[in-house]
Structure formats: structure tokens, C-alpha cells
């Protein structure tokens, strides 16, 4: 038996929008479409509504409305401002605002009268802060049930006061499962599933073990007892059933074709040594130029550029520059020049941008610059001519200009790491 961690790219994004944003905005209304498949016209209308939700002007107007409500009176811990999902982006959430006379840290627990659904506790105040003004999103509400939400307000002296509110959560639009079943086992982050946003059904699209079975058999469990042999940390949708996977454990970028019919590996971007003496060795693209291969990369991003010839595209990433594979402990990662072997105590990671030529079966490094080292997690994002980069293990992120000069960086206190950082214009 295996525990399968679900990964999707655009499929999951669409699922969140249609299944999530389709929840009711009242406590007692029932969705007209519940239990029925939506027509094409209804889907189009729903799509228009969702696009409206993510419109900058709409979100700004909602923000202004909330700010106006906050000014109407003095909201306290025993008289909170509570609004259901005001921004329309999280259907099982509440917006909560109040002030306290003394600085407190706030957590909350969501409870329903159903023994099969365990209580859900979340820390609302981040970074162990103690605040006077409190503005939170409470998530994890259970549809079609009365939710009892208990807030724990803890002062700097360690004393805790509790306040409880109840909220009657309405129905979701579809018939999606609220509580998911799990499969125990130890194979992780190696399966892709698809969610049908019309009827809520989920089906398995790809098990990478089916494509790399012989390689998987050579791998061993890591120190946590998991067989994290592939560790897919990013999926990029290329269209027409083609996707790119970023595999941290193999320091490889894998292109899959015919995802929904007969999935197959089309090619890989990797140091040739990783796949030497295997049946996949001939699928590694040829490196054009003298540069070190990426190691343990994260947040790969596919860029289709109309100025490029047919068959070419750009691909950029956070090149962690780490060579560690617990599931393949005998592999010598020093074949990659300058690669590091520690999650935190390394010297340099990089922004990498490749030009990939599928026609010639080659790729070249067209841009790179040094970033603060982070062995795991992390991200990069192109914004115009600038790049936003997150070195997650250090808790450092910053923005770099078109000449790769640092404009400004920020450091955040953290318990372990910062997973991703992205910048959006409002």
C-alpha cells in the first residue's frame, strides 16, 4: 500500500476556482446546482463570476468595504466583525476582525458535532507575535454544519482567554468530498490526479512509478521512512497534454507527453550522470555550452515566447545547487561542479534560465546569477525585467533588476523555512 501525495498544475488551479469559489455566500441558501451537472451556459456564467472575483478593482472595492465596516464601531474579542468569505477566494473560511486592550497571540479551533471529523486548530497570529489589532482568515469550516469556533487569546504572561462563536456553514456547489480518505504506505510525491470540477470525481492520471519502475526499484526509503524517490515539486502545463515536472530527488526536469491518453517520457533536462547506464539515458537532452547542471531545482517556470522559432521555449528556475538524494545514497553528486551537500550550510544557489530547443534536442544556459544559498524549497519569479527570488531555508527574499543587481531584500524570522514568495501588482 502506498500513500500518494497529490500533485497537479493547471488542473488543480481550475479545480480550486470552480469547486471552491462556487460555494454559497449565505448561511441558509441552497445551491441551485447542487447534485446536478452544470450546463455549458452555467459553466460560462460561473467562469465570468470567478474572473470577476480575481479582478483587481473588485478586490479593492471589497477591501474598502471591510475597512469601512471596521470604522463603524470598536470591535472587541467578545464582539467580533465576522464576514463569510468576503473576497470570494476561500469558500470554507471566515474573515474575522477585532481589537484587544493588551497584546495577545491568537489561535482558534473549529469543532463540529460529528465524531468522524476531528477538530481543526490553526495558529492565526504569525511569528509568535503579540498584537493589539487582529485581522484573520479562519479556514477549515465544514459545509452543511454548525461550526463552533473557539479563539484562544494568549497574553505575554502566558495567560489564555477563550471566546467562542458559532457559524452555520452553507453548502458547496458540487458534491465534492470534504473529508478525504487516505492510503497508508510510503511512496510520496509521485502521482498526478485530476479533479472533474463538474461532478467532483477524482481519477488518477499518472503514476510515475509506471514510467520509471526499474529506477524506483533501485531506490531506498529516506530517514523518515518514506520512499521519496522522485519528489515532484512543480508541474508546468505546456498545452496539448504536455507537462514539465521538476524532480528534486533526481535533479531532473522531465517532459511528459500524452498525459491523458498514453503518458510517456519525451525527454529530460539533467546531468547525464544521473541517468547513465539506465534505459532513460538517451532521453537526456544535450547540453550546449559549459555550465554546471542544476541541482535540486524548485519552481521551474515554462515561458512560451512568440519570438522564438517553433520548438523552442524558455525555462527558468531556482537552482538550489544541492546534490543530496537520500533514496539514492550511493550516487556521487560531485560530478556536478560546485554542487553543495547541505540544506543550510552551503555557499551559493542560482537563478537559472534555459533556452530549450526540442527540435535539436538540446538546451543552453542563457542567463544566471548568484542567490543566497538554500538547499531546499525556494522560488524565483520573473516580473517584467526584474526577478523576485526566495531563498527559503534562510528566510531571505528580494527583488533584482534587469542587470541582476539586488534592489532590496527582506529577512523573516521563521520556524523552519519560507516555501515560496511571489509578487503581485494591486
From TrEMBL:
The lineage of its organism: Bacteria, Bacillati, Bacillota, Clostridia, Lachnospirales. Residues 38-47 have a biased composition (Acidic residues). The keyword Acetylation does not apply. It comes from the Bacteria. Keywords: Signal. InterPro entries: Arylsulfotran_N, Arylsulfotransferase_bact, ASST_N_sf. Residues 27-37 have a biased composition (Low complexity). Residues 1-23 form the signal peptide. Residues 81-169 form the Arylsulfotransferase N-terminal domain. This is Aryl-sulfate sulfotransferase. Residues 27-47 are annotated as: Disordered.
Amino acid at each position: 500500500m502506498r500513500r500518494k501525495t497529490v500533485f497537479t498544475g493547471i488542473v488543480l488551479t481550475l479545480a480550486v476556482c470552480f469547486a471552491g469559489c462556487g460555494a454559497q455566500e449565505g448561511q441558509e441558501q441552497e445551491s441551485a446546482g447542487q447534485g446536478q451537472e452544470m450546463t455549458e451556459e452555467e459553466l460560462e456564467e460561473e467562469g465570468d463570476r470567478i474572473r470577476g472575483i480575481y479582478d483587481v478593482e473588485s478586490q479593492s472595492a471589497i477591501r474598502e468595504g471591510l475597512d469601512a465596516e471596521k470604522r463603524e464601531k470598536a470591535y472587541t474579542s467578545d464582539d467580533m466583525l465576522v464576514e463569510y468569505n468576503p473576497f470570494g477566494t476561500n469558500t470554507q473560511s471566515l474573515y474575522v476582525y477585532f481589537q484587544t486592550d493588551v497584546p495577545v497571540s491568537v489561535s482558534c479551533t473549529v469543532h463540529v458535532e460529528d465524531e468522524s471529523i476531528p477538530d481543526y486548530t490553526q495558529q492565526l497570529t504569525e511569528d509568535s507575535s503579540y498584537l493589539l489589532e487582529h485581522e484573520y482568515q479562519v479556514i477549515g469550516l465544514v459545509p452543511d454544519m454548525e461550526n463552533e469556533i473557539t479563539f484562544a487569546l494568549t497574553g505575554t504572561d502566558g495567560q489564555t482567554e477563550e471566546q467562542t462563536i458559532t457559524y452555520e456553514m452553507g453548502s458547496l456547489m458540487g458534491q465534492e468530498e470534504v473529508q478525504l480518505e487516505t492510503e497508508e504506505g510510503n511512496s510520496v510525491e509521485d502521482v498526478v490526479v485530476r479533479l472533474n470540477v463538474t461532478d467532483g470525481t477524482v481519477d488518477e492520471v499518472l503514476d510515475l512509478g509506471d514510467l520509471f519502475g526499474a529506477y524506483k526499484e533501485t531506490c531506498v526509503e529516506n530517514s523518515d521512512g518514506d520512499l521519496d524517490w522522485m519528489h515532484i515539486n512543480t508541474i508546468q502545463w505546456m498545452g496539448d497534454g504536455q507537462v514539465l515536472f521538476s524532480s528534486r530527488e533526481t535533479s531532473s526536469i522531465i517532459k511528459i507527453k500524452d498525459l491523458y491518453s498514453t503518458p510517456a517520457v519525451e525527454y529530460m533536462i539533467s546531468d547525464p550522470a544521473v541517468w547513465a547506464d539506465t534505459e532513460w539515458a538517451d532521453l537526456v537532452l544535450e547540453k550546449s555550452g559549459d555550465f554546471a547542471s542544476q541541482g535540486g531545482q524548485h519552481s521551474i517556470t515554462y515561458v512560451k515566447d512568440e519570438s522564438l522559432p517553433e520548438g523552442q521555449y524558455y525555462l527558468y528556475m531556482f537552482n538550489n545547487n544541492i546534490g543530496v538524494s537520500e533514496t539514492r545514497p550511493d550516487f556521487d553528486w560531485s560530478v556536478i561542479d560546485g554542487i553543495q551537500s547541505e540544506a543550510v550550510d552551503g555557499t551559493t544557489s542560482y537563478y537559472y534560465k534555459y533556452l530549450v530547443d526540442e527540435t535539436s534536442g538540446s538546451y543552453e544556459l542563457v542567463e544566471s546569477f548568484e542567490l543566497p544559498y538554500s538547499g531546499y524549497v525556494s522560488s524565483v519569479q520573473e516580473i517584467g525585467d526584474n526577478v523576485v527570488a526566495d531563498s527559503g531555508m534562510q528566510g531571505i527574499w528580494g527583488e533584482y533588476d534587469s542587470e541582476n543587481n539586488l534592489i532590496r531584500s527582506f529577512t523573516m524570522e521563521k520556524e523552519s523555512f519560507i516555501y515560496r514568495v511571489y509578487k503581485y501588482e494591486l
